[in-house]
Queue: 3 jobs
Job 1
Amino acid sequence: MSGPAPRAGRVLVVGLGLIGGSVAAALREGGFAGEITGYDQDHACSVRALQRGLVDAAAASLDEALGSAELVVIAVPALGVEQVLVAVRESARADVVITDVASAKGVVLESARRVFGALPPGLVPGHPIAGSERSGVEAARGDLFRGHRAILTPHAGTAPAALALVEAMWICAGAAVTCMEAGEHDRILALTSHLPHVLAFTLVNALSQQDSSEQIFRYAAGGFRDFTRIASSDPVMWRDIALANRDSLLAAIDVFTDSLAGLRASVANSDAAALHGLFASAHGARGRYLQWLEAAQAPAAASSGDDA
């Protein structure tokens, strides 16, 4: 369900892929009446966003578009955020509010410190917990964030007005807003999002290297398709996420590696009790997760009719 539209006359979305394009579309569907300008390094993406009605204007120059923006939404791969922040420092108004959609927040704060010397009061790092294996401006849609969370990681010096504006943006887009410390965000997302993605990529790649890969994929069942769906995600984006959240991802990989080693030992030792215990524990844990998810999404589903 959408809330009151953010009180900003001009919003600039930098990066018009799935998330950036969907932010623009969701704001418009949520009732934002101001001007939405889009900028992408590939100007053809900006033009396509304009043709689809996602944005009101397609900027050819980032510096020019920044000059009048009151709210800047940075929706580029994580390792490209710093380059945009440099342009913000050089061309944006002093009171501009800056947010982003990167899946790792520590790297955004580090980049901001390097660029500005200190964290700007208008900086409100953010991350919508929504997406798709599809990518690009053609995949953008206005309902992408409905029933999903948007996590904000404001720093100690974030201005209350800036935080309120970014919160209003995500509520207008249909998301439920949660605030969290950046390090905790990166640790949790490494376990729940980044690790599953790298596992899916790794499994598909490992099987594709087998001599019988064609036969393997031909006879793979629906469970394999469902588990590996996210391996269709944008390789550039996930390369950047893996590097941007390196330490937390390495820790998550270690957690999984230890668990996998335990499973291997149980199989090697024909330890039926240990295998049953592991599978039963996981079965129960996933059941509890689904119950929590259903309860958490019930209000949004009742309001919007969408099942995320």
Note: Residues 272-304 form the longest helix (33 residues).
Job 2
Amino acid sequence: MTDPLPVSMPLRVADLPARKPKRFDLRPAPEVLPLVAGLIGAESVRKLSFKGEIRPAGKHDFVLEGDLGATVVQACVVTLAPVTTRIEEHVTRRYLTEMPSPAEHSDPSAEGIEMPEDDTAEPLPEVIDPGSVLLEALALAMPLYPRAEDAALDQADFSPPDAAPLTDAALKPFAGLAALRDKLENGGNDSDGSDGGTPA
């Protein structure tokens, strides 16, 4: 049996209003925040709120929309000093009775090319828990590599064992290739509007 979530507001889909939204406003108590921090891998969570609504969409589907606000503290990836981040995120989840098949994402005009899937859609469960959505959205919104303002990495060396290191300086030519690629994708035009041709 799994441990209960520190932030939870389970709502049975069968009990949700069929014609109007069900509103929620989650503001966990201070004593709950350390449990939230442990679940999402943060050093601490100082403020946390998630306010929004679950509303019917069509005959059988539902949409959850809410505004997530949080202040999280993580360890700097360079110095391990605490890094504080303010998160403001608009969250959307679409709960569908019938999920679209992969074929429905394909582009009929371009064989073999697929449209990106809707990452907000998921199968309609028996229970929708805004607290669970809060924790998931917060974990996804946190910086992957938090870094303090005064933290600086030394010159990086990239090389396999027993090989000459590929340093930052050695990588500079690749930056020039990237610039050339961008220029070609723009039709050969420079950013200043000139045609870049040789004077007659």
Note: The chain has two domains: 11-141, 155-200.
Job 3
Amino acid sequence: MIAGRQAPARARAAEPGARHDLHARGTVGVVARREITVKLHDRAFLGSTVFMVVVVVLAVAIPAFIQGQTPRLTVAVRGSAAQQVVGAATTLGADAQKSSSTSVFGVGRLPGAAITTLPVESTAEAERLVRDGTVSAAVIGDDVRTLQVIAAGAVPDALGSLVEAASAQVQVSAAAADAGLTSAQLRAMLNPTPPTTVLLEGTARGPVPPELLVAVFAFLFYLSVLTFGVSIAQSVVEEKQSRVVELLVAAVPVRWLLAGKVIGNTALAVGQIVLLLGVGILGAAVTGRGDAVGQVLAGSGWFLVFFLLGFVLLACLWAVAGSLVSRIEELQATTIVMQVLVMLPFFAALLATAPGIVQTTLSYVPLTAPLLMPERVILGDVAAWEPVVSATLVLVLATLSVALGARLYESSVLHTSSRLTLRQAWRREGA
């Protein structure tokens, strides 16, 4: 009976704490939603997001458009061997449009092209047509071993590759016929079986160069963290300068205000990055680069994890940088250190691309790990357990950063008379 009477008493004692936690979560959520709403109505933010989406679309569409354009070439031809070689080149160019694996002797990939031949009576006539731009080039000769390719400035790359391959094919076919080889033996000569590649270290390179993915992820991290970080700092200063922060703090505990600000901007930053990655992946799939989708997805997973941790690691410090000053004009003095902290991982990711002790070490340093560890994952130079350990280290430092940032922010956000140093802000907390 006594135990039964004590249980409700303990429950009632716990109710205030539970209500406090619910109130805190609700208040932080309100502040976070306010941050998100303000940003979504900010023309500068919307404009920059649209601009980045357009850049991603163009980066995917332009190469696909260029690769998808089949060159149309008109070639002047004089001589029996020239006709035979250009005819073979026309066939190879048409086959290459249908299959990207078209090759001769199993080496390289031939470009696709639509070739139209224009028979001429003399070399002089062929040269005249080349000079006035009627034809892209001219092929002259009755002997395949002494063919001449005539062009105005340079032979178009696709035409040069196809004519060289066709010339080799014609000569090999003639030699095979003289030697009495069968058609099956001739096909085996022209299309030999390539060797199998076995990689002892690393992974096979995908259709997208790993270095390019690293550069793209580094740029996205740098641009997003810098943009949102400066926005957080400016928001804090504007609230101080307009005295709005005094009204907010009167209604909301300072740490809740900071938590909502950080959570709201983190959600927006991650959402923006996911949008850009999604547009890029969708564009790759739509333009027929489905082979690149899996490669980008494999690199994006860990990048998003480390982006989230790295953003939280720096977000509170950006808020502190804003809380130390009282006017927008003074903000540059306190944010310069933050800009350096953002630039360090960016340049480290671009410079430390070669696997080695430097790259491995930096991938465990919390400030550079958000880009260096995903870089090692993309390059295939990492064991399965390493990203987990690195992410844990970043999480530990992010937790300490949040605690430090909350203390400094709480002691300086209401100081509006002059700029504070970090030491002064720290001592104000202890006062």
Note: The CA atoms of residues 98 and 147 lie 28 Å apart.
